[in-house]
Amino acid sequence: MTDKETSTARCAVLVGSYTSGKTTLLEALLHNAGAVHRKGTIPQGNTVGDPSPEARARQMSVEPNIAHCEYLGDHWSIIDCPGSIELSYDRNTALMAADVAVIVAEPEISRVLVLAPLFKFLDDHDIPHLLFINKMDKAAVRVAELMDALQSVSSKPLVLRQVPIRDDEDITGFVDLVSERAYRYTEDGASALVEMPDTVKDREGEARQEMLESLADFDDALLEQLLEDKIPATGEVYDQLAKDLREDLIVPVLIGSAEASNGITRLWKALRHEAPQPAATAERLQIPAGSDLAASVFRIMHLPHTGRMTLARVWRGQITDGMTLGSERVSGLFHIMGGESQKVTSAGEGQVVALGRMEKTQAGELLTPDGRVADSGMAWPAPPAPVFALAVQPLNRQDEVKLTGSIAKLIEEDASISIEHNADTHQMLVWGQGEIHLKIATERLKSKYNVEVELSQPQTAYKETIRKGTTQHSRFKRQTGGHGQFGDVQVEIKPLPRGGGFEFVNKIVGGSVPRQYIPAVEHGAKDYLQRGPLGFPVVDVSVTLFDGQFHAVDSSDMAFKTAGRLAMSEGLPSCAPVLLEPIYNVTINVPSDFTAKIHGLISGRRGQILGFEPKSDWGGWDEVKCMLPQEELRDLIIELRSLTFGVGSFEWSFDHLQELTGKPADKVIQSRQEALAAN
Ligand SMILES: Nc1nc2c(ncn2[C@@H]2O[C@H](COP(=O)(O)OP(=O)(O)OP(=O)(O)O)[C@@H](O)[C@H]2O)c(=O)[nH]1
Ligand SMILES: [Mg+2]
After folding, report:
1. Which of 198, 470, 530, 570 sits 20 to 30 Å CA-CA off 395?
2. Are 601 and 650 within 8 A, CB to CB?
3. Mean pLDDT calculated for residue range 1-9
4. What is the per-residue pLDDT across 349-362, written as a single tens digit (0 to 9) for each?
5. Tell me, what DSSP letter sits at residue 30?
């Protein structure tokens, strides 16, 4: 039982797969607590959880949304996270503020695997979590069967706390396994205490025994009682459940329906009595002791009216408006709820608060009155590797600077977005976790920053080289009136081994090309190599200048530069130019059951499998290593996710350039020539 005197503000974070009902559950929790008069619904687009136009248009959450309420005198911040796998970094960082995570799961076996990465994250970070099986109003599956499936993705034991009462196939209520009380669901949400129906008694007894045995694994006294067939006191069982959750030893499982407001009171009570206090969370996160005041930043937000907001969780002390924190003044202290910011005067231990107009803060830092500590003690999650890119361009040329600035703000809010100015293709690429992720990001550019962009596919950074050498004699001569131009060079052009880049060798003897003009020849050659005969940058070429002629009056840097350039443009076409395509080293992570399918995926994409092995830090998962052409990487994530129920991921790095010949090469060259002609 939480002692009223010692209970401080707590934070629960709602997580789980896409459309499992997290936002609906937030509404139900707020309504149950009396914080909202009317429960919003997703179809009506009036939920507290999803205030942004991007969310409403899609009927999905697109960012973590915070709500605040009081439940029986305790203050709670509840963060409703998006479920889309593409938005999981936002979820992961929000979880760093959590005392407890509530996994909202669907009662469907086919939707269990998608929870695996989430369970892994919670386990890796020791975040206490409980599971709420939602949508019981339309559940077709048996809870016991679902529990088996869910257990297969959790490394911690799941402990079922309730069993459903069925009337034919409909679930009409539940039995609480600790108190052994039966409840009937009602229309208005508050379940009614009823006598336990005979039909559920066997199942109840069996499930209760299972629950106690799971708990006894972590408590000798309880084990002894079970061995002696003694019935442990209810209070003792509750204490044990709270302790095991706090220590992240077990995952309690509750059932209900967010839409019908069933099982919400039970969930609230579990949170109230069993969720760890912020002091315990601070200890788990290894927030350094010392200062009287400590708050960690878990998110930066840019809001239209209030500007830059620093979202922080207070671990110790009290933040007040106007105080100096981490060398910056706090200008405005807010509670954000449903997209509205409400001014507050102070924020004490456990509170989630938005700090106004601090410009230097960064997610993951610890704020103290003395400064900002980058290494806050907690293991701040690294952003996932980028897997999908789109090229962006401002619709209006004048918006170029505004666009870069606005994207920088998006990145501040969500570090799983990144930007690349590709030197080869001259495209500005926005990288992220998938198409939805990037579409939402670009819609925000318009709705928040009024920058409209054009999106296009990223181009592959093809290059070209030569397969044989030649010698070339080229002369640039122009006689226009008085002062003419003259430069004459003889060069040997040779292919270099792959990765050799560009080499310029000067073998002029006797001053046939005066020394001062030689850099100009090199310059001219290099200039041409930016776009070779096939239309791409030329690499792995050696150019040796071995002879030439000059004119005492008409020769100049300019003339020799042009001659150098001419020698390349005239010589290279006879050097058997060939296309080079970038090949990437790719590591794909999938559950082992999918490894065979991944082999098919790789060979279908002109890839080469290097091998696969079990992932050392993730039981039941494999790591498949392969080489894939960059061209095939562009939409890899889409096919990978559709093959693996959304859970497959990959990382990549450039490896080498490889010759591309035949029909695929012809196609690339042709479309390049067309693009150049069109410009
Ligand atoms: N039958 C039934 N439907 C539900 C329940 N909870 C939510 N839904 C419906 O499921 C759909 C998704 O609900 P949301 O609350 O938006 O789910 P979410 O988990 O927030 O979704 P994302 O944020 O996009 O991941 C909506 O159409 C809800 O009305 C429930 O308990 N029973
Ligand atoms: Mg949602």
Report:
1. 530
2. no
3. 56
4. 999 999 999 999 99
5. H
Nearest to 525 by CA among 510, 509, 503: 503
- CB of 137 shorter than 6 A to ligand 1: yes
**CA-to-CA distance for 561 and 472, rounded, in angstroms?**
15
CA atoms of 252 and 244, how far apart (whole Å): 9
Sign of CA dihedral 110, 115, 117, 120: negative
- Look at the block and give the residue holding tokens 């290593």: 625
Buried b / exposed e along 542-551 (16+ C-beta atoms within 10 A) = bbbbbbbebe
Ligand 1, atom nearest to 257 Cα? 31
Nearest to 599 by CA among 631, 630, 629, 622: 622
Lowest mean pLDDT segment, chosen from 122-131, 365-374, 442-451, 579-588: 365-374
Q: What is the dihedral of CA 275, 71, 89, 134, to 10 degrees?
A: 90
SS (H, E, C) 604-651: CCCCEEEEEEECCCCCCEEEEEEEEEHHHHCCHHHHHHHHCCCCCEEE
Count of beta carbons in the 10 Å neighbourhood of residue 67: 25
Q: How far apart are CA 152 and CA 359, in angstroms?
A: 44
pLDDT tens across 237-275, in order?
Answer: 999 999 999 999 999 999 999 999 999 999 999 999 999
Nearest CA owner, ligand 1 atom 24 = 60
Inter-axis angle of helices 22-32 and 264-274, to 10 degrees? 80
Q: Which residue has the tokens 């407001």?
A: 261
Amino acid 599 reads H
Token pair, residue 324, equals 């100096």
User: pLDDT confidence of 7, banded at 50, 70, 90?
Assistant: low
Query: Separation of 64 CA from ligand 2 center, angstroms?
Result: 9
Alpha helices in 126-277 (DSSP H): 143-151, 198-216, 220-227, 234-246, 264-274
* Ligand at shortest distance from the CA of 258: 1
Pocket of ligand 1 contains residue 83 by CB under 6 Å: yes
Dihedral sign (CA 633, 638, 640, 641):
positive
3-class DSSP state of 28? helix
Q: Is the CB of 257 under 6 A from ligand 1?
A: yes
Q: Is the CB of 24 under 6 A from ligand 1?
A: yes
Give, for ligand 1, the residue of 13, 18, 23, 262 to mutate: max count of ligand atoms closer than 8 Å to Cβ: 23
CA distances from 89 to 41, 63, 84, 381, 454 (A): 25, 10, 10, 8, 25
Fill in the amino acid letter for 266. Answer: R
Helix or strand run (H / E) with residue 428: strand 428-432
In sequence order, which residues have a C-beta less than 8 Å from that of residue 345 and are 6 or more positions away?
320, 321, 333
From the centroid of its chain, how far is CA 289?
Answer: 31
Q: Which pTM was predicted?
A: 0.93
Q: Which of 33, 167, 170, 26 is nearest to 104 (CA)?
A: 26
The DSSP call for residue 306 is T
Higher pLDDT, 43 or 217: 217
Cβ contacts of 634 within 8 Å, gap of 6 or more: 388, 389, 457, 458, 460
The pair phi, psi for residue 40, each rounded to 5°, is -75, 155
Of 71, 102, 428, which is closest to residue 253 (Cα–Cα)? 102
Give me the mean pLDDT over the 622-636 stretch: 97
pLDDT in tens, 533-584: 999 999 999 999 999 999 999 999 999 999 999 999 999 999 999 999 999 9
* Residue 321 reports pLDDT greater than 90: yes
* CA end-to-end distance (rounded Å), the chain: 73
**CA 167, chain centre distance (Å):** 43
